[in-house]
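User: Hey, my collaborator sent me this sequence without any context and asked if I could get a structure. I don't really work with proteins. Can you help?
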Amino acid sequence: MYKLNVKKLGFALGLTGAIIYLGCMLVMATAGKEGSIVFFNSLLHGLDVSTIIRMNVSLSEALLGILQTFILGFIVGAFIAAFYNAQIKTHDIKSTESF
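Assistant: No problem. I've predicted the 3D structure and written it out in C-alpha cell form, which is a compact way to encode the shape of the chain:
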C-alpha cells in the first residue's frame, strides 16, 4: 500500500473546493437571481434556496469565502491522508512520496 502525502492531498482538496466556489460565483454572476435559484434548487434535491439566496455579495466577502473554503478543504484533505496513513502497517508501505 502507498502512503499518501498529507500536504498534497490537503492542497488538492482545498484547491478543488476553491474552484467549486468560483464556479458558484460564476453561476450567480451570469444566471441572475432566478436562474441561480433554479440551478441550486435542482442541484440540492428539493432544498429551496429562494429564501436564503443573497445576490449582493461584495468582492471582499467573496475573496474571504474562497480563502475559507480552501483552508477548510486543506484541513479535511490533510486529515483524510493522515488517518489513511495511520492505518497502514509499516511493512505495507511501498513509497513515502507516492500519491
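In plain terms: Residues 6-92 form one domain. You can pass these C-alpha cells on to your collaborator as they are.
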